[in-house]
Design brief:
This protein has 314 residues and is α/β, with parallel strands linked by helices. It has 13 helices and eight strands. Strand 6, helix 7 and strand 7 form a beta-alpha-beta unit. Belongs to the DapA family.
Length: 314
């Protein structure tokens, strides 16, 4: 994986979709091609193997193979944050170590979400063990706050404890997918310089104005060009209008099951039927829902050119 001296991750990141073949095995060639396409179409960086990438339905071996494939293909490690979370401490360590060894800019870690009502001491111990067992000064940990899915939250006090225990850049940032801007703002205000990404491009402009770094979003798999316009113009006179257009598209997309909806859009953009492959228990959009989604998107002038794209970089 290509690496270089680079500022900490910032800008528009896509929570990268994982393409699968007919046997529901990760399609490595298509994954690399899609990653390159994202970087060529508005995304500053990649966040593979997260919720949108169906990582919690993948085996550890599958995840390691995709990390390896990213490195072999020369995808920019300094602009890649791999999802490495797991309820298994050993698995989280193994995947995190592989990502660091491959030159990734960071790892994105869900809390261990199976056991509910765990206290802060337990969560601190979990993340602390990962830091100690990976035992690599290159580790940059991004905590993943997604209470709708994980139930277990990442709190201000937990971040404070981790940053105190591991000073410097090891506890590098957070992705806030709560959908609550006030919560995101509290992390930005409490920890100046902390790499806080909003989990939705709906809050991209607010995040930048508050002094933080950008967004890591599922829907930037397809809204990357629109999000990049906001990122480039966030201090300009037209920033609010560009954000309004971006938000309109984001809200349309989030009205549908996210993985199925985004894979439907990718199939339409590329003409590749392989984008219809989804790991159970998730399933493709029914034809009527898909037609409804496309109808809404086609009426949005800002999104029509994206639907018209056909080529994926080889």
């Amino acid at each position: 994986m290509a690496t270089s001296a680079h500022p900490r991750p910032h800008g528009v990141y896509a929570a990268v979709l994982t393409p699968f073949d007919q046997n529901l095995e990760p399609d490595v060639k298509a994954f690399v091609a899609h990653s390159r396409w994202l970087l060529a179409n508005g995304c500053d960086g990649l966040a593979p193997l997260g919720t949108t990438g169906e990582a919690n339905s993948l085996s550890v071996d599958h995840r390691l193979r995709l990390i390896e494939a990213s490195a072999e293909a020369g995808l920019p490690g300094d602009r890649t944050i791999f999802g490495t979370g797991s309820c298994s401490l050993a698995d989280a360590v193994r995947v995190s170590r592989a990502a660091v060894t491959a030159g990734a800019a960071g790892v994105l870690l869900l809390p261990p979400f199976y056991y509910k009502n765990v206290d802060e001491d337990g969560l601190f111990a979990f993340f602390s063990e990962i830091v100690q067992r990976v035992a690599d000064p290159r580790l940059r940990m991004y905590l993943y706050h997604f209470p709708q899915q994980a139930v277990i939250p990442i709190t201000l006090s937990l971040v404070e404890r981790l940053k105190k225990a591991y000073p410097g850049e090891t506890i590098a940032g957070l992705k806030d997918s709560s959908g609550n801007w006030d919560n995101t703002a509290s992390f930005i205000k409490t920890f100046p310089g902390f790499g806080v990404f909003s989990g939705s491009e709906q809050f991209l402009l607010a995040n930048l104005r508050a002094g933080s770094v950008g967004c890591i979003s599922a829907t930037t798999n397809v809204t990357g060009p629109l999000a990049q316009k906001v990122y480039q113009a966030w201090q300009g006179a037209d920033a609010d209008q560009l954000q309004a257009e971006l938000t309109e598209t984001r809200l349309t997309l989030q009205g549908y099951p996210p993985i199925a909806g985004l894979k439907s859009v990718m199939r339409k953009i590329t003409g590749d039927k392989g984008w219809g492959n989804i790991l159970p228990p998730n399933k493709p959009l029914p034809a009527a829902q898909e037609a409804e989604l496309f109808g809404k998107l086609e009426k949005q002038p800002q999104f029509a050119p994206i639907l018209g794209q056909r080529a994926i970089a080889a």
